[in-house]
């Protein structure tokens, strides 16, 4: 055994020696890969060696030893120390070095995640996990296995804003399909929490329409939220799936979400009293699925939709008439609803308290301002970039041997 | 815990940065395993979110605050009270919530600044949403008594009908920029080029 520890000491010396230039690091990398078994056999005695290494200059070597140390079972007392030391490593390590061994880095981070969950302090993991993602990513378009773990921390710790910053990146490269499902599902939940319903709908849509050969629980739950967010944001829900949805999803999703489809039907009918009856009938199911909050938002949206529908028929309407049509209790309540909608930009109207009337106005947007031109410009730029990406992917695919084999038959 | 960035922002009255500074610091301190909850300036943190109208974040912060802190620090509860009134859109209630608590010196600056900002926003809302409105309701929205409210609005061009106590709103003309410059021409050329290829 001593012989082994001597070998380990030698390796540490080599880590010190070979962490200079890129060619040295590559040489070190091969050495470390060859010494995996050695590390594993000495895993319980490696911890003190970490003090001899610098997490920034010797990131690769540090990573290998840290990975071996943490592969052994950890006691509860050691957990908080371990979490702190991994967090420190993540903050200090050199991105170029750890990118040479992405699987090792990922497994160290996964263990970090497990320990943080055991300690029941998810907030502790938010900042380090975000740093880890940025160091592991080859570009901001790359989805790593750590993305969903980070979003999970954000959700559990109720720190939604950092999650949003990651969600703003467009993803083009995905390592594992499961990561993608979880990323979009958790991402959807974070957007719902911050009331960014448009983005939430996009993410949940991606889960529901992703390619899959069998159904999984993530898709089922995502579909339920997708129905609710669709009702809140768009005011309607269409049960027909887009053409690119997998057949397994198209055939089976509806079976798992009956109460939600009934709610959507009831919403479409437009009567608040019926909608509330429907909510009551399925209350337990919504609560069990932890979707009751969203369901309540659907109900309050119904008032908004009904008021919006009035603008298509009337130029002016009395507050009392609005209250009656939309099934509110009083003209004052109707006034408050209209005021809130004006505040949120959901309606263009002026309230005349003297006569108790509301006058509905046209959207004042003339699409001639500099600001609007900037918006249209940036949208066009984005579409041009996407179009170029699509052309590139098409070219790459037409050279892919698998594709050529299928096509030539 | 290093609160220098927060103190600087408070001293320079950069209240719109408080929320970000507090959020970043909280995540940093938490990742170092420090137990910070007892010393954390939750009232200022909440007010930071309220100041930039991010009531969602204020809500989630409130949910994270330990029960012990809520019981021991009435100022934190009072700060959340403002947030709650904003959340439920109890427009008049916000003014009450600001007024009914005796704020500590550290917090007075940001509360006073928010109160002014909120009154201004309420006035702008009234201008955009109403053509006529009673002095009573105006007073509630602006957090002033009926006479002060009437004066506030009259100074800004509204007119008052004393018999019905109805104020007529003066709409503001919206000035929009419509000048184009030569860089737009460059961009149009690019688009056409892209479409042709």
Automatic annotation (TrEMBL), chain A:
Its main location: cytoplasm. GO terms for cellular component: COP9 signalosome; cytoplasm. Coiled coil: none annotated. Keywords: Cytoplasm, Nucleus, Signalosome. The keyword Nucleus applies. It comes from the Eukaryota. GO terms for biological process: ubiquitin-dependent protein catabolic process. It is found in: Cytoplasm; Nucleus. Residues 196-365 form the PCI domain. PROSITE patterns: PCI. Gene3D superfamilies: 1.25.40.570. This is COP9 signalosome complex subunit 3. Belongs to the CSN3 family. SMART domains: PINT.
UniProtKB/TrEMBL annotation, chain B:
The keyword Cytoplasm applies. Residues 39-175 form the CSN8/PSMD8/EIF3K domain. Coiled coil: none annotated. Keywords: Cytoplasm, Nucleus, Signalosome. InterPro entries: COP9_CSN8 (IPR033205), CSN8_PSD8_EIF3K (IPR033464). One of its GO terms (biological process) is protein deneddylation. It is found in: Cytoplasm; Nucleus. GO terms for cellular component: COP9 signalosome; cytoplasm. PANTHER family: COP9 SIGNALOSOME COMPLEX SUBUNIT 8. This is COP9 signalosome complex subunit 8.
């Amino acid at each position: 055994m001593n012989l082994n520890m001597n070998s380990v000491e030698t390796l540490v010396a080599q880590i010190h020696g070979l962490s200079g230039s890129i060619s040295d690091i590559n040489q070190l990398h091969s050495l470390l890969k060859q010494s995996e078994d050695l590390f594993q056999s000495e895993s319980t005695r490696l911890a003190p060696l970490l003090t001899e290494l610098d997490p920034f200059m010797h990131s690769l070597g540090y990573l290998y030893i840290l990975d071996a140390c943490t592969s052994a079972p950890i006691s509860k007392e050691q957990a908080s120390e371990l979490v702190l030391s991994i967090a420190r490593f993540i903050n200090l390590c050199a991105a170029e070095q750890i990118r040479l061994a992405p699987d090792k880095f990922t497994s160290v981070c996964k263990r970090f995640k497990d320990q943080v969950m055991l300690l029941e302090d998810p907030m502790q993991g938010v900042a380090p996990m975000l740093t880890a993602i940025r160091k592991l990513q080859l570009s901001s378009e790359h989805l790593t296995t750590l993305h969903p773990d980070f979003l999970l921390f954000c959700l559990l710790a109720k720190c939604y804003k950092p999650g949003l910053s990651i969600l703003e990146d467009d993803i083009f490269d995905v390592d594992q399909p499961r990561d993608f499902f979880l990323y979009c599902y958790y991402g959807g939940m974070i957007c719902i929490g911050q009331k960014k319903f448009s983005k939430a709908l996009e993410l949940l849509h991606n889960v529901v329409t992703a390619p899959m050969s069998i159904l999984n629980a993530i898709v089922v739950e995502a579909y339920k939220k997708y129905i609710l967010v669709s009702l809140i944001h768009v005011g309607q829900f269409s049960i027909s799936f887009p053409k690119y949805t997998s057949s397994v999803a198209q055939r089976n999703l509806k079976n798992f979400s009956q109460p939600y489809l009934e709610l959507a039907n009831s919403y479409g009918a437009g009567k608040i009293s019926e909608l509330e009856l429907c909510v009551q009938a399925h209350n337990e199911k919504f609560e069990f699925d932890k979707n009751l909050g969203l369901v309540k938002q659907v109900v309050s949206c119904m008032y908004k939709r009904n008021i919006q529908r009035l603008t298509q028929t009337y130029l002016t309407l009395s507050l009392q008439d609005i209250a009656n049509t939309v099934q509110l209790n009083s003209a004052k309540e109707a006034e408050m609803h209209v005021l809130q909608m004006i505040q949120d930009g959901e309606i263009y109207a002026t309230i005349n308290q003297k006569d108790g009337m509301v006058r509905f106005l046209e959207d004042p947007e003339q699409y001639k301002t500099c600001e609007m031109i900037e918006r249209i410009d940036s949208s066009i730029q984005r579409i041009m970039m996407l179009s170029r990406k699509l052309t590139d992917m098409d070219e790459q695919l037409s050279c892919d041997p698998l594709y050529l084999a299928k096509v030539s038959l | 815990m290093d609160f220098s960035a927060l103190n600087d922002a408070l001293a320079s009255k950069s209240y719109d940065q408080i929320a970000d500074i507090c959020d970043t610091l909280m995540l940093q301190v938490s990742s170092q395993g420090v137990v910070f909850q007892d010393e954390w300036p939750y009232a200022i943190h909440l007010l930071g979110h309220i100041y930039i109208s991010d009531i969602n974040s204020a809500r989630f912060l409130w949910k994270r605050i330990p029960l012990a802190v809520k019981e021991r620090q009435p100022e934190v509860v009072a700060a959340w009270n403002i947030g709650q009134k904003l959340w439920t859109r109890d427009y008049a209630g916000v003014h009450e919530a600001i007024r009914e608590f005796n704020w500590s010196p550290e917090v007075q600056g940001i509360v006073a600044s928010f109160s002014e900002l909120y009154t201004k926003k309420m006035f702008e809302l009234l201008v955009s949403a109403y053509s006529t409105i009673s002095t009573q309701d105006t007073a509630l929205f602006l957090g002033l008594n009926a006479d002060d409210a009437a004066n506030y609005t009259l100074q800004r061009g509204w007119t008052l009908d004393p018999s019905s106590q109805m104020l007529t709103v003066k709409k503001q003309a919206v000035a929009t920029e419509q000048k184009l410059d030569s860089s737009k021409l460059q961009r149009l050329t690019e688009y056409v080029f892209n479409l042709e290829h």
